[in-house]
Structure formats: C-alpha cells, structure tokens
C-alpha cells in the first residue's frame, strides 16, 4: 500500500513544544517567531523531515502557517482545512485563523509594538512573503529579522533523516522533448531578458527541466535539489550525490555540472562577485537565496520562474500519456464504483477498506495495461457522511467510519503512472439520497458542466472561469470554500502552477494546460459533495458566425457520475445532453476493458438521463 492509515499514538505535546519555542524567542530577544508550512524548496508536499509546522502545531494539512508570540499564538489554514485544524491542534494554545481572510502578516501587525523583532528562517519563505511581513512590521516600527538557526530544527530531537531516494531518468518518449532542448530554450529565454542566470528551487521545475524523477517526497516523483541555469555555459544541478547511480550521473553530466547541495551558497556568492544579473521569481524563490545574491553583489531581476509556463503547457507526448493514464485509471475507478454499489449498502465497508480497494484496483489496471502504478498521487480522501464534509479529510484508524445506507460517500483520489498523473473525485449515494442531497449534487454538477463546456478567448484567466462553477450554487445561497481547479503535472505534482481556476487565478490559460474541474458543496456535520474531472485547454478554434477563435476544454477523466444523485428537473437540455454524451464516451472507451459485473454496472450507470426541465431562477 502507498498510503498509511495509522493514527498518531498520542496527540503531540503542542503546549510543551510552544513553551520551548517561546523560551528560544525570549533568549534571542524576539517578540515572536513565524513558522511556515513550506520547506527549503517551497513545496506543498514535503518529506517527513521538513514537516516543521506539523511538529509544532499537530496540523498536517498541505497549506498553512503559524505565528508564536510571547503570550499568543495562531495557526493559519485555508478553507480546505478549517475543520481539520480544529481536530488536530490544541486550541487552548493556538487560535485557528483563516489564511486568506486573515493573512498572517495582517494578524501580526495588529499585535506589534514599536521595537518588536519577529524572527523567521529565510530558507523557508519566499522573497515576496518576506516583503509582506517586512512591510507589516515597518508600519508599527517593528522588524522582521532572519534567524540563521531554525529553533524547531534544534528542538525536534527525533527528526527523521532527509530522504535519499534514487533518481531515475524520464524517457524521451514520455517527456516529448529532450533535456538538452529544454535547457537551450531556457537559455534563450534568459538571453531575451538580458540576465545571466536564474535559480530554480522548485523541485518539479527541476524534474521537468532535466527529465528526471525521484522519490524524496510522498506521492510526488521529485528529487529534492536546486539548480542554476545560465544564459551561457552549463547549468549546475545541486543534489545529494547518493541519489545518483553511475548511469544517471553520466547522463546528467552531459547536460550539467553536478554538485552537492551544500555548494549552492558558494556558487551564489561567485555569481554575485562577478556582478551577475539573476532572474528570480519572488513568489517562488527563498528569501535566503535572494539575500545571498544581493549581499555578494548580484543584480536581481524579478520575473516569473521561466520553467513554469513551458512545464504547464503539455506537449503532444505528455498529453498522449495523460490520455492513456486516464483510460487506465477510468477502468480502476469504474471497477471501484461497481464494488461500492455491491458492498456499501451492506454496512460492512469502512473508509479505510474502501481506500485500500481503490488502490488495489489501480494497481491491477496498471499491471493489465503494462504500466504499473508507481504511486498514488496523494493520500486518498475517503469520507463517509460527515467526514466527507472535511474538504481534505485524511482517514486514519482513529477517524475511520463505516459507510452506511443514507450517507453520501466522497472519494477523491489519483494515481501516479509513468505516463501521467490522475486526480478524480466522485460522490456516491449509499441507498436512497434525500431531495436536498440531489439538489446540492445537481447544482455542483451544473457548475462542473459550465466549466467543461466553456469557450473563451486568448488571455482568459482562471478567475474569469471560476464564477461559472458557482452560479447554480450562488442562486441557492450556497458556495464552496476552495478553488475550482488546480494545475496537474505530467508524472509530477498533482498540484502544479502557475495556472488555476479560482478567484485568485490570474495566469492566462494556454493550450495544453492540464487542470482539475472540481466544484463542491459541504454541509458540516452531514455530508460533502465534490465532482472532479481533469481537463486540458484546447487550441483556439473558429466559432461559426463568430469573430474570434476560442479555446475550450477537453475532459480527460473517464468514470460515471452517480445518476441517483442527479435531479433531471434542474438541468437544461444542453446539460442533460452533455451528461449523456460524456457517459456514452465513458461507456464506449471503458466497456471493452471490463467484464462480468463490472461491465454490467457500467452499462447501467451510463444510461441516458430522463426528466423535465425547470428554472433555477425562482
């Protein structure tokens, strides 16, 4: 199994750990200390050795931060984790705050006095984040000061060792472009910006650039490393040499200089002494990197990580791999839905058993297709009833719930195959759903269809698309507290930038970008609903009678929706037709790959929608 369901042996001693941190704060003459979720590589998903926020607070979500002051402390999470954080941390020590509505820098500013010094580790926050805190502190006459030794690293006596998983080469037939070609294109981009170099610290950017994959991070095939790309001359890859076999090292040595990670500081200093102009992305570059360059004499030129957009625009080989992965994954998920149909109504299936069965179906589908499952793409969200309302719920032996008649069951999962990364959510009724469940599910489905069928011109951003997913919910006074979609990598991170479909999605969508389409609705203490497919932005096409070519989305995910949860009277004819057409494509694609009860289930699950239409306007 790629996922563990073990519950912590005991709640972490949050009060004791905060007290130890406060002792450090007092000794250093600080008024407080900032603890971000991110590691030195600014990753969302990290090895166990980098989970400093979880060690301090008990909160294990993939986004958040904490601020510890002398007499007050807060942990900040976004809307996905508002329920989870209350279950995991000691609320007598930490206040739970909303990361977006009450940003940490704003919260801090309201509590500062002139002369206060707030400490932070400059390796763990970006240049942009550091500036926000510096500005907030300056308004109150306070200082945001780097602390060279991270106190948590010293206090965390049983901290796991950093990972040293082996690096593998990503084959050209799956990558679509050689690493040499990518590096040449990136060197050209640096020349166009009149800079000498750029520093990469995001591990998926490095993996994509050098056509390598690793195993340092759970469920994300990357190797912890950094790189300097140059306008002229070889780039340098900074990586623990123990991760490289002789064959991999020889291949990489043709492309780059290979150095240990500890050599990065000296190389940054050398660039600075030479008066180099260095492109840095303030949203991605650790403040420590920027400071080292500036102190050594480099000129910083701010701009976007030059790898982000090329990585996000999947090429023909990457898209072919994604389609193949989704056909394979569709078989696994459909077999799982058939398994649920048979076993869930008996009341003998729990959340852990369901997640284990889904992983088994994925492994079998990969083996049958000759592309073994390399990993799952994240811990499966297997939520029955009220657990489904916890947006990023992670089932453990302590929280495991039986899946019983009358419930909704939400399962959000994905696979990492060598040719593609998948991410799919389905919500299933166990027994007969209520009228309210059907209404909410159908409104979520209407938003999903609105995104899937959108046509839009060049320059359109995810924020402009996001509203389509919410319209039917808003009309009923409902909403969901997460983005509608995130980028997805090509056998890389299941959460990939820079594009996203959300209220904060400001990056224009471009052909080849692979995104999720996942509106939802969550009734705390009762049930959760989410419907997720992966979609790819299509090339602009002329519209009959139109004046501008329009892009759109191609849906890649293949698995049926639960028709018992669809209220046909809330759908217009075009929406019903979209569902029928989608189900027909699912049936035609997957049925030849299924047999027996699984095939019978799919035939029944993809029958046409019946029912009349009524308006949602009243």
Automatic annotation (TrEMBL):
Keywords: Aminopeptidase, Hydrolase, Metal-binding, Protease. Residues 322-539 form the Peptidase M24 domain. Residues 549-609 form the Peptidase M24 C-terminal domain. GO terms for cellular component: cytoplasm. GO terms for molecular function: metal ion binding; metalloaminopeptidase activity. Residues 17-149 form the Creatinase N-terminal domain. Pfam families: Creatinase_N (PF01321), Creatinase_N_2 (PF16189), Peptidase_M24 (PF00557), Peptidase_M24_C (PF16188). It comes from the Bacteria. Its EC number is 3.4.11.9. Gene3D superfamilies: Creatinase/methionine aminopeptidase superfamily, Creatinase/prolidase N-terminal domain. Belongs to the peptidase M24B family. This is Xaa-Pro aminopeptidase. It comes from Prosthecomicrobium pneumaticum.
């Amino acid at each position: 199994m790629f996922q563990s369901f073990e519950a912590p042996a005991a709640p972490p001693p949050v009060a004791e750990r905060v007290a130890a941190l406060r002792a450090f704060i007092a000794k250093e003459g600080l008024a407080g200390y900032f603890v971000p979720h991110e590691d030195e590589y600014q990753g969302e998903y990290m090895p166990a050795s980098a989970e400093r926020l979880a060690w301090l607070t008990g909160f294990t979500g993939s986004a958040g931060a904490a601020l510890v002051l002398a007499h007050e402390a807060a942990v900040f999470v976004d809307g996905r984790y508002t329920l989870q954080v209350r279950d995991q941390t000691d609320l007598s020590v930490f206040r739970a705050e909303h990361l977006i509505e009450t940003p940490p820098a704003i919260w801090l500013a309201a509590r500062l006095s002139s002369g206060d010094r707030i400490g932070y580790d400059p390796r763990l926050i970006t240049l942009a984040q550091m500036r926000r805190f510096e500005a907030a502190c300056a308004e109150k006459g306070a200082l945001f000061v780097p602390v060279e030794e991270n106190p948590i690293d010293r206090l965390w006596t049983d901290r796991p060792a950093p990972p040293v998983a082996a690096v593998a080469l990503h084959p050209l037939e799956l990558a679509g472009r050689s690493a040499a070609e990518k590096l040449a294109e990136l060197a050209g981009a640096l020349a166009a910006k009149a800079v000498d170099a750029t520093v990469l610290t995001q591990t998926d950017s490095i993996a994509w650039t050098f056509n390598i994959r690793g195993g340092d991070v759970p469920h994300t095939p990357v190797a912890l490393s950094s790189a300097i790309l140059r306008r002229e001359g070889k780039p340098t890859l900074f990586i623990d040499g123990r991760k490289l076999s002789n064959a991999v090292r020889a291949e990489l040595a043709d492309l780059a200089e290979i150095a240990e990670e500890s050599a990065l500081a000296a190389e940054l200093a050398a660039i600075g002494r030479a008066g180099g102009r260095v492109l840095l992305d303030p949203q991605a570059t650790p403040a420590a990197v920027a400071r080292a360059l500036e102190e050594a004499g480099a000129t910083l030129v701010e701009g976007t990580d030059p790898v982000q957009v090329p990585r996000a625009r999947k090429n023909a080989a990457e898209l072919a791999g994604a389609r193949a992965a989704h056909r394979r994954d569709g078989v696994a998920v459909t077999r799982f839905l058939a398994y649920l149909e048979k076993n869930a109504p008996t009341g003998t299936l729990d959340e852990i058993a369901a997640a284990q069965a889904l992983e088994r179906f994925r492994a079998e589908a990969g083996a049958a297709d000759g592309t073994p499952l390399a990993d799952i793409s994240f811990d499966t969200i297997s939520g029955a009833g009220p657990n489904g309302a916890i947006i990023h719920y992670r089932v453990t032996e302590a929280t495991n719930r039986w899946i019983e008649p009358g419930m909704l069951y939400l399962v959000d999962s994905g696979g990492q195959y060598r040719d593609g990364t998948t991410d799919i959510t389905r919500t299933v009724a166990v027994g007969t759903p209520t009228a309210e469940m059907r209404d909410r599910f159908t409104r979520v489905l209407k938003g999903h269809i609105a995104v899937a069928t959108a046509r839009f011109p060049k320059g359109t951003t995810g924020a402009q698309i996001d509203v389509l997913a919410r319209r039917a919910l808003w009309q009923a006074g409902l909403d969901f507290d997460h983005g509608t979609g995130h980028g997805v990598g090509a056998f890389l991170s299941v959460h990939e930038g820079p594009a996203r479909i959300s209220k904060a999605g400001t990056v224009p969508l471009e052909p080849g970008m692979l995104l999720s389409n996942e509106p939802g609705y969550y009734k705390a203490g009762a049930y959760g609903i989410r419907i997720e497919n992966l979609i790819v932005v299509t090339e602009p096409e002329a519209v009959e009678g139109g004046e501008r070519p329009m892009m759109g989305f191609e849906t890649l995910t293949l698995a049926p929706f639960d028709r018992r949860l669809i209220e046909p009277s809330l759908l217009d004819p075009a929406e019903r037709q979209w569902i029928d057409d989608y189900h027909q494509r699912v049936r035609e694609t997957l049925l030849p790959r299924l047999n027996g009860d699984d095939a019978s289930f799919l035939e029944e699950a993809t029958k046409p929608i019946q029912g009349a239409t009524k308006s949602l306007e009243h």
